[in-house]
Amino acid sequence: MLWGDKMSKYNIYKNINPNIFRGYDIRAIYGQDLNEDIAYTIGLSFGSYIREKGYEKCVVGHDNRVSSEPLSKALLEGITATGTNVVYLGLCTTPMYYYAQKKLKIDPGVMITASHNPKEYNGFKIAFDDFGNACGQMIQDFRVYTENGNFKSGEGKIEKYDIKKEYLDAIKESIKLGDKKIKVVVDTANGTASIIAKEVYEMFENVELIPLYIESNPDFPNHHPDPSVESNNADLKKKVLETHADLGVGIDGDGDRVGIIDEKGNMVFIDFYAIIIWRDIMSKVKNKHALFDVKCTKSLADEIIKLGGIPVCYRTGNSYMKAKMREGDFAFGSELSGHVFFRDKWDNIDDGLYAGLRLVEILSKTNKTVSELLDGVTKYYASPEIIIKSTDDEKFKVIEKVKEYCKEKGYTVNDIDGVRAEFDNGWALVRASNTGPNITARFEGVTPEDKEAIQKEFMALI
Fold it and tell me: ∠ CA 280-116-61 to the nearest 5 degrees?
């Protein structure tokens, strides 16, 4: 088709499924609700949108999925057809893309990735300005703009840029290991972190790296690339025990989330990882406010208070958490899903490989094991995150019904993200997923019986 004065092999796609514009990004199954024509159209829309905001340049990168390269070609053609210039990173992890935005001082950008979703998915994490990744109403406003189709025309240029060396240098500068040598198993699930994980960990003399599924393979043949789900870490647990490693580090599909396995082969959920971090940094940081999302255990809030800090419970979501980190000048923040945000000596980039190294750094300066670093933590009984299939239309209606039920019962409710009902003996969380057609739930009690009773009540309701 002809756009402006330039012929393109792509077509403007008029009827993009509105449900692919999700809470934090644009995401869909490639070949169904996402294809090259849609990528081209989104590129035209994005380039036009940021030009209206006064920007002339953006950053673009893509993950290792089979569909990412063809989608990136279409997206780039769309963006440049609006007169917007692109710094193109090519294949990179999402943290490398974030680092490039900061290093090059270019706010707008698009990372082509479906994160931890199955191989058939893909999508776009989009930043329009200095807020960072767009979320919520920002994405819906962009959807409307895209549907209106009033795109600009011009001749933008593409500049290829290799961010790898600068990214590696930044990590090396931030991490200062002690004298103790640490043996660590790193499992990248054949995702995009495979392209850099070996180089990241082998920069440090006191790290013995044991690689697991560290070859890039977009079919994810060994297990699903989501380390927040315990069943995906079965092989990582085995490898830690077989090799007598000090810990295991699991990374998700695009590299921005982490999962931790201790020396006994047990999973350390991120709210407990956060306890280890706060025990290390609380005395070193000025701002004692500690940020975490609504899914996290009360053990974390209890520990923050013990350490002299102030717990701050906030909504789930990379985009929301990262913005809140800046707004509140927090030193560290954590999401149960595996996103962790350091701002003490790192630049607020959620990076699974870096997060693993922060724990390696702590271990290298103590005689304690990972499990011993959690000695004395208040014990509660929590369910894993429970995923309940729904539809994108129905999931929000269900949450409203749960909220009405809680109000009728007179329960204390935190509704910053779904419904978190608080009780003297535990809590229940029910929320709509922002990354798929699901409802997610989690329950915790002072005793196993408390947890079971709370879970039974709310699961029956759902």
Answer: 90
